[in-house]
Amino acid sequence: MKQMILEGGHSLSGVIEISGSKNSAVALVPASLLTNGVIELTNIPEISDIEALTEILVFLGAEITRENNNMKIDCTKVKNKEIPETISKRLRASYYFMGALLGKYKHVEMYFPGGCSIGKRPINFHLEGFEKLGAKVKVEGNKYIVEADELIGNDIYFNIASVGATINLMLAATYAKGITTIHNAAREPHVINVAQLLNKMGAKVTGAGSSTIQIEGVTTLESAKIEVVPDYIEAGTYVIAGALCGDHLEVRNLVPEHIATLTDILKKMGADIDIGENKICVTRAKTYKPLAIKTEVFPGFPTDLQQPLTPLLALAHGISTIEESIFENRFMHIPYLQEMGAKITVDGRKATIEGPTSFQAKHVVATDLRAGASLILTALIAEGTTTMEGIEHVLRGYENIVLKLMQVGAKISIQEI
Ligand code: EPU
């Protein structure tokens, strides 16, 4: 087993380049299966979630060529097969094979997806959406068999603007007869990125980025090439690192509008932040003001940045609150922050944080991806040396996080225990 060792108290200066978006890449890779041609994806992050998806693609017969951050997926020999549970449960995004395989072959057999334990994370919207397109869903224990004689376009309404269900229905509907309209669709940048790939392949998707997406079914999809958008959650994480301990920390190659809610919050708290066209420069402020935060679907404040933001709120002078409105179990980092000195109480989906805090290094465990990011950021400002288990969660979503932080002055190493 590996653990991360982080020595606190060093300021971060220099440049961090942002990688391609995890949540975009993990949808673009399965989406490639919709063609019998070749899909080229550039700016693919090197993270373990992509490795797991690649294994599924290879299992289905795709030929993958990787060179640095570019990936070529040759789908000419792909065959539809039941995806083994051992691979599908390794990550959440395996659910995108449902939409892609159902769309292309009208039949898919796979198991409930895995991913971070941050709530129940049902997939009922996905399945109800497939049914609306005319598919029949059979559940055998943990296994889902979804099939249709043909898929027919329909109106689909989501109660919550679900990212996964929106993208999955876009994938399935590309080959459905007629027009599918998704109402209350998710508007995240990765939804747009997937629609761009589908359109380059020859699909007819309009409205991505708004709450109503229309997909006019087609009969073939061709080869295409697309660049993965920059990861705004990774960018937000490093911008928060800059607010915690930056000394002119420049976060480059991001789209500042994608994290406008975060930068607004940081400005309100008193951060020294300078926003350029595709970069943000942050220096730690002497003091921070407390704030009440609520997570919301895009373009609201993202749930994925709630955990990384917690240590900064704990530095603020006074009472801050975080209301987590998306996932019911996304406070698993808090017991560790409490051990490190934070005064936080949790009541249901609300955390109340009383600052300021002087963090002390401890032995901590990353229980999920963003909890891990939160603990790494806290360790950077804690007094002493923090050790962290569970780094595999962090490596699922942050490309080269150790190297990127070390290059700007953090003292981190990985040790086998
Ligand atoms: N929901 C349902 N039924 C469904 C689908 C969703 O009730 O069928 C609920 C969820 O339980 C949740 C809400 O709707 O309360 C929103 O869930 P959503 O479907 O948007 O989330 P997801 O597709 O499971 C993706 C990201 C998450 C990110 C969320 C929200 C991927 C692979 N995962 O999850 O990413 O937090 O959207 O933006 O894209 C992360 O990167 O750390 C991460 C967890």
Provide structural commentary.
The chain contains 14 helices and 23 strands. By secondary structure, the chain is an alpha+beta fold. The protein has two domains: 2-19 and 230-416, UDP-n-acetylglucosamine1-carboxyvinyl-transferase, Chain, CATH 3.65.10; 22-227, Enolpyruvate transferase domain (UDP-n-acetylglucosamine1-carboxyvinyl-transferase, Chain, Alpha-beta prism). Strand 15 (272-275) and strand 16 form a beta hairpin. The longest helix is centred in the middle third of the chain and has 14 residues, at 232-245. The protein starts with a strand and ends with a strand. Residues 22-23, 26, 92-93, 116, 119, 121-126, 160, 162-165, 186, 233, 303-304, 326-327, 369-370, 397 line the site of uridine-diphosphate-2(N-acetylglucosaminyl) butyric acid. Uridine-diphosphate-2(N-acetylglucosaminyl) butyric acid binds at residues 22-23, 26, 92-93, 116, 119, 121-126, 160, 162-165, 186, 233, 303-304, 326-327, 369-370, 397.
Specify the CATH homologous superfamily of the largest domain.
Enolpyruvate transferase domain
CATH fold title of the largest domain = UDP-n-acetylglucosamine1-carboxyvinyl-transferase, Chain
The N- to C-terminal Cα distance equals 5 Å
Main sheet makeup: 4 strands, mixed
The proportion of residues in beta strands is 25-35%
Mean pLDDT: 97
